[in-house]
Amino acid sequence: MRALFVALLLLYASGSGKVAGASGAKGNRFVCTAVPAGTDLSCSVDTSGRVQSTSPQEEELRNIIIQLRETILQQKETIVSQQGTIKELNSKLARCEADAKSRGSARRKDYSKNTMGDLPRDPTETVEQLGKTMQSLKDRLESLEQQLRANTSGGTLPNDLRDLLKHRLTDLESQLLTRVTELEEEKSQLYNETTAHRQRTENTLNSLLERITELEKSNSAFKSPEDFKVSLPLRTNYLYGRIKKSLPEMYAFTVCMWLKSSASPGIGTPFSYGVPGQANEIVLIEWGNSPMELLVNDKVAQLPLSVSDGRWHHICVTWTTRDGFWEAYQDGERLGTGENLAPWHPIKPGGVIILGQEQDIVGGRFDATQAFVGELSHFNMWDRVLRPIDISAMANCSAYMPGNVVPWVDVNVEVFGGATKAALEICEDRLFDS
Predict the structure, then answer these.
(1) Quick one: which of 12, 175, 176, 254 has the most CB atoms within 10 Å?
(2) In this structure, are residues 164 and 158 in contact, taking their beta carbons and an 8 Å threshold?
(3) CA dist 161 to 147, 167, 371, 428, Å?
(4) What positions does the domain Pentraxin (PTX) occupy (predicted)?
């Protein structure tokens, strides 16, 4: 088109055809010269038909167009680079989400809510939005390039248009970088939340495994279910054991156990049984400088027992509602008897048996001054009065009789507040003490 324009100018300027001709010809002839493709044809023709060189204004316009084309190419390269970055971030986010779903614990995000301006929270929508933005940028650049080409024939490009173009390009690039940064931050937040939840889960599992290991060691340490002891080393109101089984209604009972204590004054309360309305239904206690006492329905009988020498002792107490008759045994020997201890009072059912504490209410409100300090084992209870020969056989380790109401077995005893259970073969340990 530009070559045709120059040719028309030459034709107009030649007038009578004196640019070139051959003498003797009938008419005027024009000489046409082939111009190679890509040759710069930006020139002007004066009124005399002579070709003039390019003006400074046209040269400036040409330089501006070249600069704008370079800027456009750079922006296109930047957009392609940002697309690659966005795809990489989207892939990383997808992997993070897949990892979180596989653990079943990552917090789900609400993608329907837009909290990043016009940037959707869904990574797929984010990529689509960025693609639309980049396409819009490309279209605007092409439109501006066409406007520049159209304006090159009409004069110099206005400075305000050039500045507006540069400002707009900078603004669009800034928006693109900001959104990519927001995506990176969201990915980092998701990773941190997933890591924290995984850490909490691992800590919980480790605690459970440690507890299971302790229980396995505890169980494996007992050669048989009854070969263990409960240790209550401090005089507090929070160390105690609890028997899981309760008592039926009874008209007689025998309670036997092994005790080891050196506490003074008084070893405390080896056991107590409380029921609703009567916390002292059955209590064995040695408190302060008083002798050991047996309480039934809050009635008291003093027992001639002494076990605070720091060695293992086998003690038994029996009681029957008939005349309130009771007996006290230590190491197989009957040391005392009496009567009129809560006569004709049946033992009430459905209460709580506590080892090591005296109950002021059923199952609680312990007094530290009445707490048992030491070790106990083989707490058994029967709903009848045992024969002296049976009690002596248990004390001499020649026989073992589990209680028909409360037997001493590991699964039947709970410990709290720092009280512990440990393996013990009571007859061997007692022999060693001797």
Answers:
(1) 254
(2) no
(3) 10, 10, 94, 104
(4) 226-427
State the sign of the Cα–Cα–Cα–Cα dihedral 110, 112, 114, 120.
positive
Q: Which two tokens stand for residue 67?
A: 């600069």
Q: Mention every residue, 6+ apart, whose C-beta is less than 8 A from residue 49.
A: 10, 13, 14, 15, 19
Q: Each residue of 377-433: pLDDT tens digit? A: 999 999 999 999 999 999 999 888 999 999 999 999 999 998 999 988 887 765 555
Mean of the per-residue pLDDT values of the chain: 78
How is residue 287 written in tokens? 């408190």
Residue 397 corresponds to which tokens in the numbers above?
A: 């380790």
The phi, psi pair for 327, rounded to 5°, reads -140, 150
**Encoded tokens for 52:** 């003039």
Enter the tokens of residue 265.
């004054």
93 forms beta bridges with: none
Give the three-class secondary structure for 142: helix
Three-state DSSP class for residue 160: helix
Cβ-based neighbour number of residue 292 at 10 Å = 23
Q: Are the beta carbons of 297 and 310 closer than 8 angstroms?
A: no
Phi, psi of 213 (to 5 degrees): -65, -40
- Answer for the pair 187, 89: CB distance below 8 angstroms, yes or no: yes
What's phi and psi for 134, nearest 5 deg?
Answer: -65, -40
- CA–CA separation, 168 and 234 (whole Å): 80
DSSP string, 34-89: ---TT-----EE-TTSPEEPPPHHHHHHHHHHHHHHHHHHHHHHHHHHHHHHHHHH
- Is domain 228-433 in CATH 2.60.120.200, yes or no? yes
Q: What is the percentage of the chain residues whose pLDDT exceeds 70? A: 70
What is the Cα–Cα distance from 27 to 183, expressed in whole angstroms?
77
The helix-helix angle for 56-103 and 123-151 (nearest 10°) equals 180
- Alpha carbon dihedral 209, 211, 217, 220, in 10-degree steps, equals -90
Task: Give the pairing type, strands 268-275 and 278-286.
Answer: antiparallel
Domain edges within the chain: 1-54, 58-216, 228-433
Q: Which of 390, 405, 274 is nearest to 327 (CA)?
A: 390
Exposure of 104 in the CB half-sphere (CA atoms within 13 A): 1
Between CA 128 and CA 78 the distance in angstroms is 17
Percent of the chain that is helix, strand, coil (3-state, to 5) = 40, 20, 35
Unique residue bearing structure tokens 């055809």: 17
Q: What DSSP state is assigned to residue 412?
A: G
